[in-house]
């Protein structure tokens, strides 16, 4: 694609995006969720794991990681990916909040983050495989590329 063609495509995409984002849905930082909303999110996520949707989406991400990460399509891919993820959660529990993690709050010491406690995403893992054994994701069996525990 020529530079001019790429520029026109990007301008077209920008026009499409601006038209669709007049009232963007706000995503809360996970620590700002009430315990009830956090529970709704975790239950919906667990349902996606049970029905295979989480594995499908995880595999899509893993299979395309080399093409996406470190390339110009990174932001576009992840925007679509997060929107599809939010739509999948919404099919399980309409209106469920889809939080983000402000990792900059934990960047200096992520191991001690509140997110890696039983109230949020479970501990930092135990045993030689660092399997998560506490919290809403305890003892999850993942099936992307091979069957394994959810590990930190």
UniProtKB/TrEMBL annotation:
Signal peptide per UniProt: 1-19
The protein's name in its UniProt record: Tyrosinase copper-binding domain-containing protein
Pfam families: Tyrosinase
Tyrosinase copper-binding domain boundaries: 55-144
GO molecular function, one term: oxidoreductase activity
Alphabetical keyword list: Copper, Metal-binding, Signal
InterPro entries, sorted: Di-copper_centre_dom_sf, Tyrosinase/Hemocyanin, Tyrosinase_Cu-bd
């Amino acid at each position: 694609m020529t530079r001019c063609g790429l520029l026109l495509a990007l301008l077209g995409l920008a026009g499409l995006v601006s038209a669709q984002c007049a009232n963007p849905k706000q995503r809360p930082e996970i620590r700002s969720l009430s315990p009830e909303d956090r529970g709704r999110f975790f239950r919906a996520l667990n349902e996606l794991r049970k029905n295979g949707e989480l594995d499908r989406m995880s595999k899509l991400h893993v299979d395309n990681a080399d093409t996406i990460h470190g390339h110009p399509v990174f932001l576009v891919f992840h925007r679509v990916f997060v929107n599809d993820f939010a739509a999948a959660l919404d099919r399980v529990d309409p209106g469920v909040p889809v939080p983000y993690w402000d990792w900059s709050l934990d960047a200096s010491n992520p191991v001690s983050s509140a997110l890696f406690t039983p109230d949020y995403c479970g501990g930092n893992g135990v045993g030689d495989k660092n399997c998560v054994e506490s919290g809403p994701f305890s003892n999850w069996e993942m099936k992307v590329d091979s069957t394994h525990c959810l590990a930190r």
